[in-house]
What we know:
heterodimer, A: alpha/beta, eight-stranded mixed beta sheet, four-stranded antiparallel beta sheet, B: 13 helices
Amino acid sequence: MTELPTDDVLTVRGLTKFYAGGSRMRGGRQQVRAVDGVDLTIGPGEILGLVGESGSGKSTVGRCVTRLTRPTSGSIELLGREIGHLSDRRMRPLRQDVHIVFQDPYSSLNPRMTVGDIIAEPLRQQGLRSRPERRREVEDMLERTGLRAQTRSRYPHELSGGQRQRVALARALIRRPKLLVADEPASALDVSVQAAILNLLLELRQALNFSCLFISHDLSVVEFISDRIAVMYLGRIVELTTRERLFTAAQHPYTQALLSAAPVPDPIVARDRVVLTGELPSAAAMPSGCRFHTRCPVAVDRCRTEDPVLTAVTSADHQVACHLVDPVLGGPDITTARSAHADHPA
Amino acid sequence: MTGSGWASTALRTSQVDTEPVLDIRGLTVDYGVGDGAVHAASEVDLVLHRGEVLGLAGESGSGKSTLAYAVTRLLRPPGVITGGEAWFHTAEGGEVDLLAADAEQLRKLRWSEIAVVFQSAMHALNPVMTVGAQLTDVLEVHRPHLSRHQRRERAVELLRMVGITGDRLGSYPHQLSGGMRQRVMIAMAVACDPKVLIADEPTTALDVTIQAGVLEVIRTLCRTLDTAVLLITHDLGVVAEVADRVVVMYAGRPVEQASVGSLFAEPQHPYTMGLMGALPANALRSGDRRLAEIPGLVPAPVDDPDECQFAPRCPRATEKCRTERPLLRELGTDHSVACHHPGREVTSD
């Protein structure tokens, strides 16, 4: 716990996670490359937003980082210790430093346990604290997450979705982890409840000072909560930069399309919408070259053959994986190429 | 009448003063009977005009989907329609009360006049029939005069309209992505040029880039075919994108009704304001790193209340709000609100 080789709470390098997929009956077994080479770091107290559409691999990254699944290759350093390939037994004592909150508060809490027991479970699992001490800590967490003390003896089915998500947060934070992975923590909730949960997460971050990998498909939520944002597409990060830069000067064509597609709650804003043609290719049949070229409105020949690497082109804090980003001019403007049809995946 | 509606607010509102196609009056739907019955929708009045997109917005439990099920008579027990009328204006100039119509009348109206797309539409397709067979099926029943060849041509045309190539006719639903299946459902829904399309959360399960495409399809259909669309959604962003008018529902009642421009520029009901303040996109625009919260929960309306149902959660509730239920009243042109203290008065905190 004492020596920290780097300042970063989490350093991920070359992370991959492949699943065996495809029909065995048809003889062939394909490899589904859910995460296909991801590098990212999270500093102390930082919230890194990981945004992408379904199938982009963002949840798999979260599951690898929390070691709920074993990555195929690559390194995951948590507080300077390599955890990517530790056995479950060796991983166990390190679990205090990384916890996760899932999207669905209806299935992530054990319906047969009281709220108090659920929140105390991380302590009990590791045989920590006496019973009265655990009770005190549970009460502390209930208060911090804005739940009434009586909630302790309730069961999950008695709570609303928002309250359940508060319980999940209390459970995740009772060991004071250095890193919290929040996988779509507010997506299943109504907007007014979602607002309360997002506010709470920011408050708790302030009070308990943890870092957070915040996974979401919702750009406005990610923009609201994150310090830095990584955009994922088909298992890769295609753009990684600060919140301000991403929303004012997005460089990758996919990021631009994503921003343009997100509905804005303001009818006055007349926008030049760029609707992507084609569907997300399957992660089992990855396109050659740049994996976005099949839907990219500005793709050139080079994009079809050469896979771009995530690099800083215009400034050190703005990494992008696109051949067309110019050191001076920045990213290509996809609105200019709107009439040009992108070809469909074969 | 093909006003762009997409960009200009002035154009959107000008479309509204056209003939009504669906006129819902005093619709009340209960779940369960007797003392424990929950009023999922209470005395809802709603008019849908020709060629407009009417957004029906609200959080879960507000009764917006119940409304769709009731009007299309797809409501299942324990849901019961306990009152109201829903007049559908047919092409021949006649009127039919959908809530009182018999099975035969309904059969004639469904698909050909009123079509529905549900949120789970991607599961609503028959998995063992090709997309083409399902599309031509609809036409075979409701457009019997078409030949087999014409049906097929129409099916191709419909698919093209939603951005899917004709060679997909032979595909089974599992061979299509979620967005494509949803678009196939929309194509099926508009196969017979219905006058009314009821879309219940049609894009909620889809990714944003796909959602943008589906919304554009809906918008285009509305413009080119003059279809009236009742778009039910929890997402105010979607409403702002495609709707001409909006009705905000709370606890089974409409609390605010306005043109899209007016609602977003000057929301009057504290609940509507609360919803807008809770949107991260709005907080960001005002530079806030804190979202407005609405304390408390949506009540399950068991009794007919004498109070404003939002009063327990409302920052500006007064004695009057707790004793007298506000009725929907007109504030300006095409903007009505059910609140004793509407407007911006105490929004600063």
